[in-house]
């Protein structure tokens, strides 16, 4: 009995020594370099954002430009005194279509100011660069913030295209001029009570920007920041 116990004890000791020797020979994973950050699901986040840009941003951008071009083709120029104030009533007393020129920002703010196209083109490009930086840092972790980014990019590109490529005299796109255009606003509402009597004219791109701002505000309360492992 003692001999059997001694044999088992020696076997366990040899096994323990062998395990320790193997552990010493097995190289451990190197520690992360200083400042190296691992972001979980980064690849999936990029694919999700690209899908939204393709399926939402691009169609909305096209819808914005198609509706603006239709307005330009079917309503007189806002710079023509004979055609000023021409509009088409869609919902009696509430909703009209018309052709308005805007060199400012959403809802006609800062319209007609000197160098407005240059200033707001710079602001638009800076906003796009800021979005890219924030996305690389994982600032849009959930579906709500990513949806907001897709809408915002569509709105920025929609109005930026007008500023860069729409001819000032006729409102037509790609008609030989550059940096001399204006944003086409055409949706006018009047609900009969402040501040909606009337609400400033806007377009599809403006709607995208406003919806994006609302979603971004909500996402700051409803989404958790993307965790980072250092």
If you had to describe this structure to a student in words, what would you say it looks like?
With 230 residues, the chain is of the alpha+beta class. The chain has one domain. The protein contains five helices and four strands, in the order ααββααββα. It has helices spanning 2-25, 42-74, 116-136, 143-165, 204-222, and strands at residues 87-91, 95-102, 183-189, 199-202. Strands 1-2-3-4 form a four-stranded antiparallel beta sheet. The longest helix has 33 residues, at 42-74.
Spell the H/E element sequence.
Answer: HHEEHHEEH
Q: Tell me about the largest β-sheet.
A: 4 strands, antiparallel
Radius of gyration: 30 Å
Please indicate the percent range of residues in DSSP E strands (runs of 2 or more): 5-15%
Count every beta strand, where a strand is a DSSP E run of 2 or more residues: 4
Quickly count the domains.
1
**What's the average pLDDT?**
82
Strand order, largest beta sheet: 1-2-3-4
- Amino-to-carboxy terminus distance: 55 Å
The chain-level structural class is alpha+beta
Q: How many DSSP H or I helices?
A: 5
- What coarse outline follows from CA principal-axis ratios? globular
Model regions low in confidence, pLDDT < 50 over at least 5 residues: 34-38
Instruction: Give the helix proportion (percent range).
Output: 40-55%
